[in-house]
Structure formats: C-alpha cells, structure tokens
Write a structure and sequence with these properties.
InterPro entries: Carb_Metab_HTH_regulators, DeoR-like_C, DeoR_HTH, NagB/RpiA_transferase-like, WH-like_DNA-bd_sf, WH_DNA-bd_sf. With about 250 residues, the chain is of the alpha/beta class. Helix content is about 40%, strand content about 25%. The chain is built from 10 helices and 15 strands. It has a 7-stranded parallel β-sheet with strand order 6-5-4-9-12-14-15, with helices on both faces. A 3-stranded antiparallel β-sheet has the order 1-3-2. Strands 10-11-13 form a 3-stranded antiparallel β-sheet. Strand 4, helix 6 and strand 5 form a beta-alpha-beta unit. Helix 5 crosses helix 6.
Length: about 250
C-alpha cells in the first residue's frame, strides 16, 4: 500500500472513530509503528490531525466537522470533569450564555437551580434541558438550525446576542492555539460565538486537551479574551502554563 493511500485510510478511520492509536494502526495496516508515526506527522503537517501521546485526533475544518452524536461518544469522562469544574465558576452570575456543543451542554445541566437564573443559548438541546427548572428562564436564539449540532446560526441569533449584556459565557471551540486563537469550521457559527464573546462580561472556555494546538477555518476569539480555560489533565502542565501567560487562568481537571 502506498503511503498516500495509507494516510488517506488513517485519516478516514480517525474521522469515523474520533481518534486513531499508533499501535492499532500499525497492526491494521501491517506496518511498523514508526511508519504510522511518519504518516501521522505528514497528516499533522497538512493540518488534518492533531497528535497527542500515542494517538491522533482529527482536526475539524471547513470540509469536515463531527456531529453532536459523535461528540457524545468521545472522551466523555474528561468532558464531564471539565463541565463540573466549569459550573463551579458561575459565582453570582444571573445571566449565562451557553454555547452549542456537548461539553457546554453538560455545563448547562450543572447550573444552579436553587436561585433565579437566565440562560441564553443557541442550542435547542440545551434549551430543552434547562427549561425544566422553574427557577431558570431560557432565551433561545433564533435562526437557521444546523442539523449536525442542533444549534441556531445566522444574523437573527447574532443580533439577538448583540442586545444583551451577559454576566458569564461558557464557550467551546473546534481548535485552540496560541497562534491562531479559537477557531471553528463554519463562518455562521463563528459569528454567533464572536458576538457571545463581545456581549459577555466574563468568558470561560471549555474543551478537551486534544483541541489544543489545532486550528480550524474561522477565528472567533483570541486566548486573551477569556478569563478561564477549563480542560483535562491530558494538556501538559508546561503547555497549560504557556496558555496562562496569555491571560486566562487554566484549570486542568
């Protein structure tokens, strides 16, 4: 099998499964682990994957984005820990924006229900989950609904957010890097996220370690725009420190 064909199949597997292990790929394709590592290095050079310890994750781009259903099956324990730590940062906030995505959705389910709280979101699923609380007022941004994420985008959602001054925003990203900031594949999604950043007094970024160092198509914020970043311990302490030097507190859980 030629290297180009093998790399194509490795990428397809990573996108289907959410990650690819070096050892598993070596067995699957009948090559040495070093050969797989070279293939992954080439795919990373082309911006298609993000390598971590012994594995690689696909980078979401204008041509590829995972669905919400897929995100619910990947790194679930890490996402739950991140959500719990992030929810602990709510403090006295009375108005909270919750971004689309599985990890922000988990944060939403942990928001306080023993006091009045207004939750603004573009996620249909998040709106449905938090609306069950009698003490929570839910404002759902209007617009076109994206089938893969069950979230609204477009000028209606952006303009609605522009009218608010929000105490706290929980946001996710498809890629997080010191060089390119926070990125996402879809320009329409980026517009909503960017406005949420502008409209919020405090901003907390939630995301698993595999998103760090990756860059997608559309930038919507810089690392310095955030007060805190909550991720898992898969992000090394030295790397977390490098991000903290840009401004935010970085919590590894």
């Amino acid at each position: 099998m030629r290297a180009e064909e093998r790399q194509h199949r490795i990428l397809a597997y990573a996108r289907q499964s959410g990650r690819v292990e070096v050892a598993d790929a070596a067995v699957e394709f009948g090559v040495a682990r070093e050969t797989v590592r070279r293939d992954l290095s080439e795919l990373e050079r082309r911006g298609l994957i993000r390598r971590t310890h012994g594995a690689a994750y696909p980078v979401e781009s204008a041509g590829f984005e995972t669905t919400l259903a897929r995100r619910e099956t990947q790194q679930v324990e890490e996402k739950r820990r991140i959500a719990a730590a992030a929810a602990g940062l709510v403090g006295e906030a009375e108005t909270v924006f919750v971004d689309e995505g599985y990890t922000p959705e988990l944060v939403a389910t942990l928001l306080p229900v023993d006091r009045p709280l207004t939750v603004i979101t573009a996620s249909l699923r998040t709106a449905s989950l938090v609306a069950a609380s009698e003490s929570t007022t839910v404002l759902l941004a209007g617009g076109r609904v994206r089938s893969g994420t069950q979230a609204t985008v477009g000028s209606w959602a952006r303009d609605m957010l522009a009218r608010f001054v929000i105490d706290l925003a929980f946001l996710g990203a498809n890629g997080i890097s010191r060089e390119h900031g926070l990125t996402t594949p879809d320009p329409a999604v980026a517009e909503v996220k960017e406005q949420a950043v502008r409209s919020s007094r405090r901003r907390v970024l939630v995301g698993v370690h595999s998103k760090f160092g990756a860059s997608s198509f559309c930038r919507f914020a810089e690392v310095r725009d955030f007060d805190a970043i909550v991720t898992d311990a898969g992000l090394s302490a030295p790397e977390a420190h490098r991000y903290s030097l840009l401004g935010p507190q970085v919590l590894r859980v």
